[in-house]
């Protein structure tokens, strides 16, 4: 029995541009990959300026509230989604944040590591299968897909494979990028076409 990854235990990631209704704890995407931000200290009377602050992996939050009970913000740190609000005016690609600048708390650390792995996997999938060039679809986290006719969302990668959470299912499935796959493109659903067999003419 395989154990679930940190991405599989969270709600499906959501792009910051289409964040309406994002569930609490869903990772924030920017350009199809995990996003990171600095803590927002603008409302502190005396912010601590002695140290450069850590960068956190961003998640959506429905639990950042003021003392009066109003919603304070919607972007929070993965390590404390109910207590650390993030400043949304300077986004970073999480995979590109250097280790000394990263938050050292466990929840952020595991997502920073996931972001690095996912970036390498996605670059390989994009380059090798050429789906953007061949069918006009860029493979990203958060992309809506159909696997063998069942709709879902890409939530993670596993080497050259994609991890998809199918709608109405709790356990994700690992799928091949071109086998039984359709991707939601700008003009509707597009069927993935397998690469030509290099041995077919031999």
Provide an overview of this structure.
This protein is an alpha+beta fold and 202 residues long. Helices cover 16% and strands 30% of the residues. It is built from three helices and 13 strands, in the order H-E-E-E-E-E-E-E-H-H-E-E-E-E-E-E. Strands 1, 2, 3, 4, 5, 6 and 7 form a seven-stranded mixed β-sheet that branches. The chain has a six-stranded antiparallel β-sheet with strand order 11-10-9-8-12-13. A hairpin with a 2-residue loop joins strand 9 and strand 10 (161-166). The radius of gyration is 19 Å and the shape is elongated.
Write a brief structural summary.
With 202 residues, the chain is α+β, with helices and mostly antiparallel strands. The chain has helices spanning 6-9, 106-129, 131-135, and strands spanning 14-15, 28-30, 33-38, 55-60, 75-77, 80-85, 92-93, 144-147, 150-158, 161-166, 173-176, 181-185, 188-191. The model has no long low-confidence stretch (mean pLDDT 90).
């Amino acid at each position: 029995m395989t154990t679930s990854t940190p991405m599989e235990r969270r709600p499906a990631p959501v792009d910051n541009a289409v964040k309406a209704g994002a569930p609490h704890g869903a990772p924030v995407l920017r350009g199809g990959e995990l996003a990171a931000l600095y803590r927002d200290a603008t409302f502190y009377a005396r912010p601590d300026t002695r140290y450069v602050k850590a960068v956190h992996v961003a998640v959506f939050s429905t639990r950042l509230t003021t003392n009066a009970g109003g919603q304070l913000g919607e972007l929070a740190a993965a390590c404390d989604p109910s207590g650390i609000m993030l400043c949304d005016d300077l986004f970073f690609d999480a995979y590109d944040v250097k280790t000394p600048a990263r938050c050292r708390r466990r929840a952020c650390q595991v997502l920073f590591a996931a972001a690095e792995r996912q970036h390498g996997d996605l670059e390989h999938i994009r380059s090798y299968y050429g789906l953007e060039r061949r069918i006009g679809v860029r493979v990203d986290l958060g992309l809506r897909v159909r696997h063998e006719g069942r709709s879902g969302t890409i939530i993670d990668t596993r080497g050259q494979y994609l991890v998809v959470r199918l709608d109405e299912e709790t356990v994700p499935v690992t799928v091949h990028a071109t086998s039984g796959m359709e991707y939601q493109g700008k003009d509707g659903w597009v069927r993935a076409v397998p690469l030509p067999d290099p041995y077919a003419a031999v």
